[in-house]
Each structure stands twice: as structure tokens, then as C-alpha cells.
């Protein structure tokens, strides 16, 4: 269900004009589901699938440890891609929920600040 949620999230973001830079970027520090370009801003996107009966939202499931891993992994991505050195960055979360027939996605821009990690 996670990969399916990521595909839905990517379609949502592309409909809003974002362009895919990387899918499932992996480094020893962690993984980032989607790296997207939104104008002059690089958006590092965490996609969280939650079942309809889950107690926490997708955003609520991105705890401090996960935020630190995402921040460190984003730093590695930017080191490997110096062409984005002067762009702004942000961390978004797409919270996906639903069942086999329908997945709903909520896009939270600037879900957290790297300085808070």
C-alpha cells in the first residue's frame, strides 16, 4: 500500500506543478520518498500511509527522529546535486489514507523546519 500511496502523492504534486527530481532517494542516513522541484524550491517529501482506523495522522507519525533522518538525508542529496545549492528547501508531508479502491491524499507544505530538528 505504501508504494501505491507514493504514486498517488506524486500525481497530486505533479498536478500542482511540481517536477520530480528523484524517487526513493536513498543514502546511508535514510530515504526520502520524493524530491520535487516547486519553482525555485526543492521540496523533500515524506509520504505516510495510514489506514482509516489509525490513531495518528500521517503528519503525526513523522516524529523527531524521522525528521532528523530526513534532514540529514536531504543534506546528502544537496551535496550530491550542487546544481540546487542556491535554491530554497522545504520539507513536506503527504498523508495518504483509504482502502483498496480509493486513496485520499492531504499535502502539508512546510510540515517542519530543519532548524527544529
Q: How much strand?
A: 35-45%
- Low-confidence segments, ≥5 residues, pLDDT <50? none
SSE string, helix = H, strand = E?
HEEEHEE
User: How many angstroms separate the termini?
Assistant: 28 Å
**What is the number of E strands?**
5
Number of helices: 2
Instruction: Tally the structural domains.
Output: 1
Major sheet size, sense and barrel closure = 5 strands, mixed
Structural class: alpha+beta
Please state the overall shape, judged from the principal axes of the Cα atoms. Answer: globular
Per CATH, the class reads Alpha Beta
Helix percent band: 25-40%
Query: Spatial order of the strands in the main sheet?
Result: 1-2-3-4-5
- Looking at the structure, the CATH topology is Trna Endonuclease, Chain: A, domain 1
CA radius of gyration is 14 Å
Mean pLDDT over the full residue set: 88
How does this model look, in words?
With 117 residues, the chain is an alpha+beta fold. The chain has a single domain, classed as Trna Endonuclease, Chain: A, domain 1. It is built from 2 helices and 5 strands; from the N terminus they run αβββαββ. It has helices at residues 2-15, 64-80, and strands spanning 19-27, 30-38, 41-50, 88-98, 103-112. Helix 2 links the parallel strand 3 (41-50) and strand 4. The longest helix has 17 residues, at 64-80. The radius of gyration is 14 Å and the shape is globular. The N and C termini lie far apart (28 Å). The model has no long low-confidence stretch (mean pLDDT 88).
Amino acid at each position: 500500500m505504501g508504494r501505491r500511496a507514493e504514486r498517488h502523492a506524486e500525481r497530486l504534486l505533479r498536478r500542482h506543478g511540481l517536477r520530480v527530481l528523484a524517487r526513493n532517494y536513498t543514502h546511508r542516513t535514510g530515504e526520502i520518498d520524493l524530491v520535487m522541484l516547486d519553482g525555485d524550491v526543492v521540496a523533500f517529501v515524506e509520504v505516510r500511509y495510514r489506514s482509516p482506523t489509525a490513531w495518528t495522522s500521517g503528519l503525526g507519525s513523522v516524529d523527531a527522529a524521522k525528521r532528523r533522518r530526513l534532514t540529514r538525508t536531504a543534506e546528502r542529496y544537496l551535496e550530491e546535486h550542487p546544481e540546487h545549492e542556491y535554491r530554497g528547501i522545504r520539507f513536506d508531508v503527504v498523508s495518504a489514507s483509504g482502502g483498496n479502491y480509493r486513496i485520499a491524499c492531504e499535502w502539508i507544505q512546510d510540515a517542519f523546519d530543519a532548524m527544529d530538528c
